[in-house]
Amino acid sequence: MNISKYRTIFQNLLIQLRLFAAECLLPAALLNLCIEAFSRESVILPFFYLFRSPLVFCYNTLLICATLSVSFFFVRRRFVRFFLSALWIAVGFTDFVLLQFRTTPFTAVDLLLLDSAFSIMRHYLSVFQIILIVLAVLFVIAVGVFLFLRTKKETTGTSRIYAGLVFGLFLLASIFSTRLFVSCGILERNFGNLAQGFHTNGLPYCFFSSIFNTGISKPVSYSEDEIDRIISSITGSPSATSTPSADTVTPPVSTPPATTPVPEPALTPEPAAGPPNFIFLQLESFFDPLYITGAAFSEDPVPNFRRMKEQYSSGFLRVPSIGAGTANTEFELLTGINLDFFGPGEYPYKTVLKDTVCESIAYNLSALGLTAHAIHNNDGTFYGRNTVFSRLGFHTFTPIEYMGTYRTTPLGWAKDEILTPQILKALSSTDGRDFIYAISVQGHGAYPEEAVIENPAITITSLPEELSDSYYGLLYYVNQLYEMDRFIAQLTASLEAYEEEIVLVLYGDHLPAFPFTEELLANGSVYETEYVIWSNHSSGEPVRKDLEAYALSAHVLDCYDIHEGLFTRFHQTRADSETYLADMELLAYDVLYGASESYDGEIPYQETELQFGIEPITIRKALIQNNLEDYFCLFVNGDHFTPYSIAYINDKKCTTTYINSQLLSVTGFKPAESLTISIAQVGTDSHPLSFSEPITISVPMDAYPQD
Q1: Is the pLDDT of residue 271 over 70?
Q2: Is residue 260 scored above 70 in pLDDT?
Q3: Does the structure show a pLDDT above 50 at 62?
Q4: Do residues 644 and 399 lie in contact, with contact meaning Cβ atoms separated by under 8 Å?
Q5: Region 402-415 average pLDDT
Q6: Nearest CA to 381 among 658, 112, 671, 73?
């Protein structure tokens, strides 16, 4: 045995470890402090975190070390370390920026939302701020190029062998310590409160967790027998009634202001033939501001909603997010699946539902003959709804691109009043009954830090000290709530006169992005909004029941003796079971990732052919106009054009001006004797959602201006 040879290898390995410590360990610790300063929005708090949770801090430093050790594989180690360090700083800074506009931190899933982020950037950042960000990125790139050109090659013939040993050692240490710390409870695997989880476990661990911990992990007990047991437990006749719970607390209003009256329940309703029309209205960032302890307003911002929740069945609704994450509340409501089963910060719309069909209330009501419509007064591509809704069973989807002209808030969001005619249009579009899922946007942030409303209808007369910095944001917000509340009254008044029976379910998707705490809210939870079940027919005695978002649709259907669908029956029959959550997770894993044993091995749902808009956009005729020697344009006449209508001529996108719903003017196309024209609906991300049927016209070349 050549002992000296192994001694030399060991000594070289120690040298590499000391080099690693000098070049990676100290920088990793400094990077950890830096990104935690961004995450906690404080220079001091990272040091409290260091001394209060030294094991967690050292663990996160180890993770950063493991990434920096990759630099030892490259000939320009310093440049690679700079690049990797810049990535970590970018993660921390992005987290800091996002926390200014929402209450949830930056996760890897946000990278899947870049297309949506670009489309709403104008609502969050000024032109000056965008320019600063671009300049900062260019500066980092310039520094990187400089370092790449100036750094020397730092390697020898055998260094990569030792680099591999060092990297492997720290990678194994990271994996082992992760499993050890999770099993010992030092680190959390799932975060009930994402923001708190990032502070408790550290940004590096949580960010990595959002990369690798996605989807629903296979439960240990998952098997065909377990699924059969669950299915057997719900195949009996489910109860068609709901048991009222204790009344929920409603904040007092000293002097009720004059309001738009909410229609009273009919006293002698006619019996409905078959299921009613169901409308679920998800209200953006909507909640009762009188729950804010110590806050007072010149008048009640939501008088109509308050009257509705007193007269109709209602309760608190526990939602999966705070300040953001509309699509996740939407996912729970539509599918009946608990978002807690997924990875931290995950959006199933951008992961599993990108290529998987999932049971939903839309599919289930369609099985009973209802036509499923989705309506949203925002971009159709946001959260990928333009493709996801076909995998959730909707027949039509009407986003803002198909709604014509509309009014906007001072921040540029469409006002919710535009939803009323769209909902009525969907109801009248079929001879049968309809399921409508409408998503509002008016209450969306980011909320301003200065006055943007000249003569607010609602003023703030008192505010707790903790929210003093949010005064102008809250002033803007409660005035949007006031208008949203008037929209609710307008909608219910329109639906009251509708001949068919209608059930309208109203609820908030999450709390707005303000620094609320449990102590600042009278109901004691930052995860609670409220829901109301209204009907234009008598709905009996109101029931007060607090619910999870994933159980709301099953509860509503149960009130109307409807039990269609696996998850509907599960929630209606198993809510009081001791294994309720565990069994729900088994079912969710089975239908989304497993063998579909719940459906006898074959998913019974097919992706729908999603139609955009209720009314088809059509072209009747097109005409070349040539009044000037060097100018010509094409006028297109048709139906249902909107400001988002863009003409494509011979497959080329052209400059299009919206004149009215029947007329567009088009310029910037290449003269040709044959012009094939179609109209696309194109959102702010420049993605065409649909094209009209094309028409072809012949145009003599002498109709164009001659050079």
Answers
A1: no
A2: no
A3: yes
A4: no
A5: 93
A6: 112
Give the closest residue to 111 by CA, choosing from 330, 351, 342, 413. Answer: 351
Q: 157 φ, ψ to 5°? A: -65, -30
Q: Any long-range contacts for 83-89 (C-beta under 8 Å, 24+ apart)?
A: 83/144, 85/27, 85/31, 86/140, 86/144, 88/31, 88/34, 88/35, 88/64, 88/204, 89/31, 89/34, 89/35
Both tokens of 249, joined, read: 């607390």
Strands of the sheet with 502-508, listed across from one edge? 547-548, 313-318, 528-535, 502-508, 277-283, 434-439, 371-376, 396-398, 611-612
For residues 681-705, average pLDDT? 87
**pLDDT for the residue numbered 279:** 98
HSE (CB half, 13 Å, CA atoms) of 535?
A: 26
What is the separation, in whole angstroms, between the first and last Cα of the chain? 91
Helix (H, G, I), strand (E, B) or coil at 521: strand
Asked if residue 308 lies in contact with residue 489, where contact means CB atoms within 8 angstroms, the answer is: no
From CA 586, how far away is CA 583, in angstroms rounded? 5
3-class DSSP assignment, residue 491? helix
d(CA 131, CA 116): 19
Question: What confidence category does residue 344 fall into, taking pLDDT thresholds of 50, 70 and 90?
Answer: confident
- Residue of 301, 331, 296, 319 whose CA lies nearest to 526: 319
pLDDT at position 115, please? 57
Count CB-CB contacts under 10 A for residue 468.
Answer: 9
> In angstroms, what CA-CA distances link 704 with 611, 623, 671?
37, 12, 7
Q: Cβ distance 254 to 631 under 8 Å?
A: no
SS3 state at 701: helix
SS3 (DSSP) at 25: helix
Q: Predicted confidence band at 430 (pLDDT cuts at 50, 70, 90)?
A: very high
Helix runs in 466-512, H state only: 471-496
DSSP SS3 for 119: helix
Q: Output DSSP code: residue 22.
A: I
Decide if 648 contacts 696 (C-beta within 8 A).
Answer: no
**pLDDT tens column, 283-303:** 999 999 999 999 999 999 999
- Res 196: pLDDT: 75
Q: Phi and psi dihedrals of 62, rounded to 5?
A: -60, -40
Distance between CA 419 and CA 427 in Å, rounded? 12
Instruction: Encode pLDDT of 29-59 as tens digits.
Output: 889 999 999 888 888 888 888 888 899 999 9
Which tokens is 83 given? 């690049």
Whole-number Å distance between alpha carbons of 536 and 495: 7
Q: How far apart are CA 330 and CA 493, in angstroms?
A: 25
490 pLDDT band, cuts 50/70/90, is very high
- Please report the pLDDT score of residue 254 as a whole number: 33
All residues at 6 or more sequence positions from 699 whose CB lies less than 8 Å from its CB, including other chains: 624, 671, 672, 673, 674, 675
Residue 583 in this model has a pLDDT that exceeds 80? yes
Residue 77: CB atoms within 10 A of its CB come to 23
Alpha helices by DSSP H, 340-450: 361-366, 385-388, 419-428
In this predicted structure, what is the pLDDT of residue 72?
74
Q: Are 553 and 334 in contact (CB under 8 A)?
A: yes
Distance (Å, whole) CA 131 – CA 501: 53
Question: Three-state SS for 500?
Answer: coil
Contacts of 280 (CB under 8 A, 6+ apart): 333, 361, 435, 436, 437, 438, 505, 507, 553
213 is written with which tokens? 């911990």
Whether 509 contacts 293, CB under 8 Å: no
Average pLDDT along the chain = 84
Answer positive or negative: Cα dihedral of 186, 189, 192, 196. Answer: positive
- pLDDT for the residue numbered 245: 37
